[in-house]
Specification:
Layout (H helix, E strand, L loop, with lengths): L2 H8 L3 H9 L3 E6 L2 E6 L11 E3 L2 E3 L6 E2 L3 H6 L5 E7 L3 E8 L2 E6 L6 H8 L2 H9 L3 E8 L17 E9 L8 H11 L6 E6 H17 L4 E6 L7 E3 L2 H12 L7 H17 L4 H27 L5 E7 L3 H13 L4 E5 L6 E7 L1 H13 L2
Parallel strand pairs: 5-13
Antiparallel strand pairs: 1-2, 2-3, 3-4, 6-11, 6-12, 7-8, 7-9, 9-10, 12-13, 14-16, 15-16
Helix pairs in contact: 8-9, 8-10, 10-12
């Protein structure tokens, strides 16, 4: 692996890159018989999740700040127009060409075999990237059949890929929203819905209205973007999304980090303040927050009392047994323990149950000892 070439391409001093590898901030991993670099942390301006395949770079997707108080967050913007795009409930994937073939890279910088297989079936994405190999498609993989986040979207079916950004893969420079929309339309690639473009002064009130409507429909939230993509984007989610996250996390209370749980409780406090909740409305919000925390934990404890192993199930369809085995090996390398149930002869359709050992074992220990 030519670290001098890689450091020059990324604009990082070679000594800094070697030091990051030594500290394991950058990992040297294998992918199809070759060494790749995966950035586990931000290093010298290069984003976490960046992957280097030889001399081909796929930059990591930048962090997006979360707006807790919309009106205050937008006051610092210089842009006059605020574009509001829907934030879909799935997992972040970058589609790019590596060795002239499409790969699907997860937020953490791993090539997911299942996602890659699905993206290679998407002819429109492949044509766009083949004609524009300097670009990468940053999108949300959603649907009822994927190994990460199951959420039903009628427009997605079992698996859908919706592009929210198009970026230069070497520099991470984004295309403006009109440039992105023209390119996606030209190739017939699905983009996330654009829900409106508003003047900055009116945007906060309009975004609150849109977010509440999306929450009532069981959808995740919004991302606020500068039309020219100069300002840093902001994301915002309604109460329903925060409570749904909490219900899921507290079903496995020892598997999710405290930061994950605490941040969503904090969001609810700011929503209550910005919406000027008082009296009965505030009491109802507090009760809903309490239910999202307590009820799933009680249910999980009772399931363990009955002898169950806690976990989440996903139904997936593979083109071959080889693809299934590759995905199972990928999950094993990520430290994910799964049970496999074959649903269709030949092993093409299976149910994977990701086992939540930490929560199961800790609850069992308390049930045995009481302490």
């Amino acid at each position: 692996m030519n670290l001098s070439l890689i450091s020059e391409k990324l604009g990082i001093p070679e000594w800094r890159l070697r030091g990051a590898i030594k500290r394991h901030s950058v990992q040297v991993l294998g992918y199809r018989g070759r060494e790749v670099l995966v950035f586990r942390k931000d290093v010298a301006g290069v984003e976490r999740g960046t992957v280097v395949f030889g001399d081909e770079v796929v930059r990591g997707y930048p962090k997006i700040k979360r707006a807790l108080l919309l009106s205050a967050a937008l006051r610092s913007w210089k842009a006059e127009q605020v574009a509001v795009e829907e934030k879909l409930n799935g997992y972040n994937v970058r589609a790019a060409l590596v060795d002239s073939r499409v790969v699907g890279v997860t937020r953490g910088g791993y090539v997911c075999p299942y996602t890659t297989s699905k993206l290679r079936e998407a002819r429109e994405c492949r044509r766009l990237l083949e004609d524009n190999p300097e670009l990468m498609l940053c999108g949300e993989a959603v649907g009822t059949s994927n190994p990460y986040v199951v959420h039903e979207y009628p427009e997605a079916g079992e698996f859908g890929f919706f592009v929210f950004d198009v970026r230069h893969r070497d520099t991470n420079e984004p295309l403006s929203i009109p440039e992105k929309r023209r390119l996606l339309e030209e190739y017939g690639v699905q983009g996330v819905p654009l829900l409106g473009v508003f003047r900055r002064e009116e945007a906060a009130d309009r975004v609150l209205e849109i977010a509440q409507r999306l929450g009532a429909e069981g959808r995740e939230g919004v991302v606020l973007k500068d039309w020219e993509m100069v300002e840093e984007p902001l994301k915002y989610t309604p109460s329903q999304t925060n409570l749904s996250d909490l219900r899921h996390a507290f079903a496995y209370p020892y598997d999710y980090g405290r930061d994950f749980l605490f941040s969503r409780i904090i969001r609810e406090a700011y929503i209550a303040v910005e919406r000027e909740m008082k009296g009965e409305e505030l009491s109802d919000a507090a009760a809903a927050l309490g239910r999202s925390i307590l009820l799933p934990m009680v249910e999980s404890i009772r399931r363990v009392m009955k002898g169950e192993v806690l976990g989440e199930s996903y139904e997936l369809e593979f083109r071959s047994e080889e693809e299934l085995l590759e995905m199972l090996e990928f999950l094993r390398r990520q430290g994910v323990s799964v049970q496999v149930e074959v649903l269709e002869e030949g092993g093409r359709r299976v149910r994977l149950k990701k086992l939540r050992h930490a929560s199961t074992d800790r609850i069992r220990a308390v049930l045995r000892s009481g302490t």
